[in-house]
Amino acid sequence: MKKMMKGFTLIELMIVVAIIGILAAIAIPNFVKFQARSKQSEAKANLKAMFTAQKAFAAEKDKFSDKVGEVGFSPERNNRYSYFTGASANLTDRTVALEAPTAGGVDTGVMYDAFKYNDPVVFVPATLNTVPAIICAGATVPGLGLVGTTPIWTGAAQGQIDNDTAADNWSISTDNRSLSGTCDATGPNPSGEPANEKNDVNQNT
């Protein structure tokens, strides 16, 4: 007596493949966004560390500084973001295995880890290592580093968290700010709380 061989028909297999394709088309873009959001935690953590270093320096010296070496700020390697404590373009070089601070302790920032993230199409040095404009307004005129003669300091981070051409921008300040205008973050922004000025997760270019 012959046994009946059971299996799937071609139509059944095609339906299953089509369902898997539809689910993948829905899930993959959302996964990419979640992945990008997780990378933003680097900027938030390092900006808070920068703020803490500034407050500790100010408690001892009774002033803020825009020099990373002076305040003791040095993010761990593998950083996707460049960090800025001042408005000048002197950045600690991270294009090689051993980072190279500029002579004289004049660095006002730390560049992203170009030794690891060395694809110039995705990680564009001319973009990421350029001092960003601070667009999140506060009670005073916004600016990077020290604002005039007032005892207010503002720092920033600029990085690449996906594969488009847009950068992800953050700022942090010793000033209590009310965020509005062209800033992606809105509402009250307390002193020491990072603000997402340009959210790369929401940008397509």
What's the short version?
This protein is α+β, with helices and mostly antiparallel strands. It contains three helices and nine strands, in the order ααβββαββββββ. 34% of the residues are buried.
Describe the SSE topology.
Layout: H1 10-61, H2 68-71, E1 81-84, E2 91-92, E3 109-110, H3 125-128, E4 145-146, E5 153-159, E6 168-173, E7 177-179, E8 187-189, E9 195-198
Parallel strand pairs: 2-3
Antiparallel strand pairs: 1-3, 1-5, 4-5, 5-6, 6-9, 7-8
Structure description:
- The protein is α+β, with helices and mostly antiparallel strands and 205 residues long.
- It has one domain (40-202).
- The chain has 3 helices and 9 strands.
- It has helices at 10-61, 68-71, 125-128, and strands spanning 81-84, 91-92, 109-110, 145-146, 153-159, 168-173, 177-179, 187-189, 195-198.
- Strands 1, 2, 3, 4, 5, 6 and 9 form a 7-stranded mixed sheet that branches. A two-stranded antiparallel ribbon has the order 7-8.
- The mean pLDDT is 86.
